[in-house]
Amino acid sequence: MSKWMTIYTIGFLSLWVLVPHVAIAWPSRHHDPQRGMAVGLLMIVAMIGAALGGLFALGYALKQGWLMAIPKWISLITGGWIGVVLAVGLVRVVIAKVLRGS
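Structure (tokenized):
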């Protein structure tokens, strides 16, 4: 695995663990009755990211490329999907602004 792919995977998995924790700690502006369910889902997402990070670290420590490939491909596919969703959203915003004329 290349050095850049290792850096990308570590960074992506770090964000996968840290972002839900920041979202949980962020104070809400009003009472939300579904906050407990949202927090539970975010905790599950953070645990999945931590498990993938642990699998990646174990593969790196044992010099087993196939163990490192599992989190690498999951982070590549997930990151690619997020990129496509963000690009489509950007295109929709640009098209809406052009059609409004502003």
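Helices lie at 3-25, 35-61, 65-100. The chain has a mean pLDDT of 90.
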